[in-house]
Specification:
AB hydrolase-1 domain-containing protein; AB_hydrolase_fold; about 230 residues; alpha/beta; 5 strands; Rossmann fold
Length: about 230
């Protein structure tokens, strides 16, 4: 089961991961976010439900990767592997570019409304990313600000917690993504006992969303083979 990132949605998760998982015979489960202050708790409940019948590969993009790894720390016996794309920080969220961006977005939505905040959020970004944000932010409806705020203050697993996750893990990063620094992905890959880091670029994902999923799945396959 794979989870979406901050202010994102299950549609983007499917764009990223469907092709790569199908190629290795894995069925994708991608729950829709439940917008609002309990966004993360809803993600954790979805992971619990997915693992009721046995161990599952879990992961996600950005916040989704954080939440999946957090769940795995407490449910290692139910985790068969990790697919972690674009982790944004390690441990406390304070000062991380992704957390700052989410907090600013939440404040702007509350102050000016979604339409005006969205215009600012997409100003100057590539057309594909503007399209993704427009669809996802609109889909969050009245829960958007609370969703962004919930993500902005949520701690990611620490290095010590990541070190307890001895399942195979694929970590993926975009080398040109300032919001999800590659240095963070490297920290995660080093901390995880059995992980491989694979890279792509946002400019590639812009024309081929599946490139990010292929990087994560390739990392998982390399970790399994190690």
């Amino acid at each position: 089961m794979l989870l979406p990132g901050t202010g994102s949605d299950d549609h983007f998760v499917r764009e990223v991961f469907t092709e790569a998982l199908a190629a290795v015979g894995v069925r994708l489960l991608a729950p829709a976010p439940v917008p609002g202050p309990d966004l993360v708790e809803a993600h954790l409940a979805a992971l619990d439900e997915a693992a009721r019948r046995g161990p599952v590969i879990v992961g996600g993009i950005s916040l989704g990767a954080h939440v999946a790894a957090e769940w795995a720390v407490d449910n290692l016996d139910r985790c068969a592997g990790l697919l972690l794309a674009l982790p944004g920080w390690t441990g406390a969220a304070e000062g991380a570019p992704g957390a700052i961006t989410a907090a600013h977005g939440a404040a702007d939505v509350r102050a000016r409304g979604t339409e005006a905040a969205l215009r600012s959020a997409v100003a100057g970004v590539d057309a594909w990313l503007a399209d993704e944000l427009t669809r996802a932010w609109t889909g969050h409806g009245d829960g958007l600000a609370d969703s962004l705020a919930a993500a902005a203050c949520r701690a990611a697993p620490t290095e010590a917690q990541l070190a307890t996750l001895d399942v195979p893990a694929g970590v993926a990063t975009c080398l040109d993504d300032p919001v999800h620094p590659t240095d963070v992905a490297r920290v995660w890959a080093r901390a995880l006992p059995n992980a491989a880091l694979c890279t792509t670029r946002l400019e590639v994902v812009g024309v081929d969303r599946a490139a990010l999923g292929r990087a994560a799945v390739l990392g998982l396959l390399r970790a399994r083979a190690a």
